[in-house]
Amino acid sequence: MNSAEIVSMIQNEIPDAEVHPEGEGCNFKITVLSSEFAGKTMLQQHQRVNKILAPSLASGALHAVTLVTRTPA
Which end of the chain has a smaller Cβ tally under 10 Å, C or N? Predict the structure, then answer.
């Protein structure tokens, strides 16, 4: 999996997201900034992104993912 695929997957579900993946192969640190996260706990934010990434994690295309989520503010 490459960075562009990760950005595309997340932005298809969260259109206003700024997505910054770092890594290669199946190991990434992914920073996601979105106004959709306002008022949500970090756990809820991570669950939202993990749901998007779930098919890639299940297939093994992604293996190790570290998430950083926050609002633009």
Answer: C
Contacts of residue 17, Cβ cutoff 8 Å, sequence gap at least 6: 10, 11, 32, 33, 34, 36
**pTM given for the model:** 0.92
Architecture of the domain defined by 3-70: 2-Layer Sandwich (3.30)
Share of the chain above pLDDT 90, in %: 92
How is residue 30 written in tokens? Answer: 């992914």
